[in-house]
Give the backbone structure.
Amino acid sequence: MSENQKRPLDSGETRAALARWLGPALTADAVTITRAELLAGGAVQQNWRLDVTVTGGPRAGTHTWVLRTDAAATLSVSLDRIAEYKCIAEAHKAGVLVAEPIACSEDRDLLGAPFAIQAFVSGVAQGRRIVRDPDLASFGDALARTIGGEMAKLHAVVPKDGVLPFLPRPLGNPARRIVGECRAVLDKASAPRPALEYVLAWLDRNAPEPKAIALVHGDLRTGNYMVDHGQLTAILDWEFCHWGDPREDLGWFIARCWRFGNDQKVAGGIAKLAFLLEGYNAVAAQKISAPELQYFEVQAAARWATIALAQGDRFVQGGERSLELALTGLMPPEMELDCLDIIDRIEGKGGR
């Protein structure tokens, strides 16, 4: 049993300890946590909604915040909550629409694991609900433009002294680094994946010359942003943030697996690709065209297949009795087929 399970945040003792820590962290006279509720979702982390009253200091008043802490098991490729929080803070500084960073702590004595606290943001994040919204036709194009612009703001953050020094800077071509990371996961997998091995070999052979390295979200897709009445309210879930080729984020966003069945709308199931690129290129210093994203669409599907395989092996090999993990482990064949179809299209064989 994990420490998170031993000391649930909804216990009065733990809430009181957290409130005592928050007082000086917020330069407040006192903090009271009136409610803590575990939110649904989050295979890599736990998300808790907190209703908080702050007395004194710059944040005096009542607030609704979200506390994020690691789940019982994490993916080796994901950031911990403190590193993720620092990436969010850097994105916030660059003007990217994120839930405001409030506080973070590496102290395991409080909750049994490091944690980070952000503002609670209203809206809908479920991908299937967003792409099936009856009003999507009226807001989808504008939403895609906005998301493209937010990506470009993020990609304006570049590696330099003092900026996220804990993130490793890629040596050589970042596309080949991703191939290596996927192969490392396959080496530990519970079953061989020959089709995925073929795709990774193709990606290695065909890796394009990289764009200038930038801060990449790593999981920016429909399902990882909030929409309220057709408006973007925040980009979520930064645990895969890293330095990389900015086209990674665009390729990930347009991957078919994140369109939730709305396949004709290539940009995340919400709009045509042209609207995403229009928003991006209106802001970005490095312009990106549709043809160069084909490689990164293959890369995205292969990477998600690998992550899904690792998630499934948390059930198969790690003993986590989770239906979500078990079902996720069944997804790789669909992404493998997507990869092969796109490769066929790139090589002039048509595809589906």
